[in-house]
Amino acid sequence: MSIFSWQSHQELSVLNQFSATSKINQYKRSGGGCGGANSSGYNIDLFSQKVGPRPAEEIFWYTYITVGTPPQQFQLLFDTGAQHIIIPSQNCTTCGNATLFNWSVSSTFSDQPSIDTLIGFGNGALANCTVITDAVRLGGRTVLAQEFMLCYTYSEHFHELAGDGIFGLSPSATSAWYPTGNEYTTFYWGLISQGQLSSPEWGLALVKCGNHARDGILTIGGTDISLYHPNTLKAVPLSWPLSEVTQWWVLDISGVCINGVFPVPNTTNSVTLVDTGSYNVVAPDYETAKALFALISPLIKRIDSERGVWGAPCTLLDAVAKDVVFHFGSGSQVFDAVLEKKYFNMGPTPGKPGWCSAIIADPGSDYKMREPIAQRRAWIHGNKILKPYYTVWNGVSRTVSFAKLKT
């Protein structure tokens, strides 16, 4: 899961435990009925994992990559809220059960550019890493000399990590390493620049199909029209230059609608990070969350001020839940994204018997999330907002598009 501070340009990520046993599965224009038959790119399986004890706990999606020569396989959290690839090194003694990269046996490994960097995570955890270079493969596509973070220390919050790291996918062709500012080409854009993909766009369906083991499909270098209705595709422009500055997929929000009331106070002229590496929705501040929940039910209270958790007695939360409609975009280019009420109840709240948590939270305490250019209110929308849709992401046209999934 990735959570980001809108007051910092540094990546803040929370890695939670996720696990599976499977090999990499990629195919193009194969299969049928569940994707692949009409793919203009390369389809890659995504797998989901429930985290934690609560019955409706957060769900994350991850995929498999290989690194080095001969290839070593890693399962990584698929994260649109991150720019970098992060995996643990063979000399990491605090990386829990994660698979460690044995760089000493890779014939394509280079210790350059050898930049030491410290990555901060949303819960205060840290990872110490060195930027190195090696071959990275995803879905049969390879960048032979890809820079990424090889970490030799995960702080205590990662001791129980069952997965290995992060696969970041940002809209920018280049990123920079902290603290030197050295620029490099990100993995996806490396594939494009080398002519391995015919299109800069990629498609995403976070939906299970029949009896297939996979829980979602990522299509790189195109889309898969067997998964969505093309005539319903609606493009929403990225908020620019904000997306360029943050290197995140940031959309404008022109308002929020609940129970026919539009706009909810404090929700116009705001922005959001669309983040597959998070599960919930985080409002910009306490005041915005309060105004939103007031239109749903007075029974919903802020039950954990430090973490910004809102909830109600478990017997009531499902009964009062409402669909929440977020108007992504502005002017004539708006898409009404629905956070469906079936996702509203996240289950029992730890330490508060009889109470359940709502999927919408605030940043906690008196913290206010603001974007760094114009200081507009800033949201985070996790993967639940994407579940009902097929989405198409394009860093060249600077858009995220939404379409109706085929069922």
Automatic annotation (TrEMBL):
InterPro entries: Aspartic_peptidase_A1, Aspartic_peptidase_AS, Pepsin-like_dom, PEPTIDASE_A1, Peptidase_A2_cat, Peptidase_aspartic_dom_sf. Residues 74-122 form the Peptidase A2 domain. GO terms for cellular component: fungal-type vacuole. Keywords: Aspartyl protease, Hydrolase, Protease. Residues 61-403 form the Peptidase A1 domain. CDD domains: pepsin_like. Pfam families: Asp. It comes from the Eukaryota. GO terms for biological process: proteolysis. One of its GO terms (molecular function) is aspartic-type endopeptidase activity. Gene3D superfamilies: Acid Proteases. Belongs to the peptidase A1 family. This is Peptidase A1 domain-containing protein. It comes from Chaetomium thermophilum (strain DSM 1495 / CBS 144.50 / IMI 039719) (Thermochaetoides thermophila).
